[in-house]
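Checklist before submission:
- one chain only
- standard amino acids only
- sequence pasted in full

Submission:
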Amino acid sequence: MHRPALLECALGAMNLGVIVLDDERRVVLWNRWMAQHSGIEAEAVLGRDFIGVFAGMRGRRIDGAVHHALHNNFPAILSQTLHKAPFPLYLDAAARERGERLQQAVAVTPIDIPGQPRHCLIQVSDVSFAVHRERLLRDQALELRLQSYSDGLTGIANRRHFDAAMDNEIRRAKRSGSPLSLLMIDIDCFKPYNDHFGHQQGDDTLARVARALAGMLHRPLDLIARYGGEEFAVILPDVGEAQARQLAESLRLCVGQLAIPHAPATGAANVTVSIGMATRTARNSAETAVLIGAADRALYAAKRAGRNRVVVESP
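Returned file contents:
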């Protein structure tokens, strides 16, 4: 087989697009892959100006890359991450109809041919599968991250999420001097409830109370987390003591209005919650452990005072 024929067969068999431009940016080579995915046969583009074929690329990154390859002898790689799908190339007619371009990685390389002006080689690779796989892995990683930061039973944030959020909000409060309130919430007499109704119903009640509490929080920065067992924590950035106490009372009433019958042994008609509250201000400058400790002490004071109430303690 003669070398030109062998070269033509090799170019036709390559699983990537190959374009060669002369020193005046005219197309002198257009392989079968380019014809298949662009829908333009080689006869229709050979001898034409590159930008004449792809008018949408004028002034774009690939236009500059071709210029630098021909005039400055600089190669360039255009990654899919930054440049998406520069060429109008499609897997098939159906994809063309939907406007779904192949995801592409493009390499632009100067070619020095003895006795001739410099040419430019453009290689276009289909990286759609790699992009799809990367997107899938990213989605899976996000799902795992969400799972690691949410409580499997109630669907709200878990303790790990709470710890990270609390540290972030303390740092933000230090920078801005804004208040930060924390509520510690505990379902009253939950052990007798579990003993009487069973753990399955206990889990259902935990999830129901969590949903009710979460539904009362309307600001994006507010966070409710399952702190442990039947205890919840609510972080309220930029909320002072008076406003936080008002919200705490609303949360307490909200749970009572669920009217979940309590275990007879508790002496209470319905399931209720006790809430301890503490607020960090520019004046007290409480750190994370101090603020949690104050809210926790307030919670136990609410329990000792008869439950189903809100108690506030200063850090």
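Reviewer check: The chain has 13 helices and ten strands.
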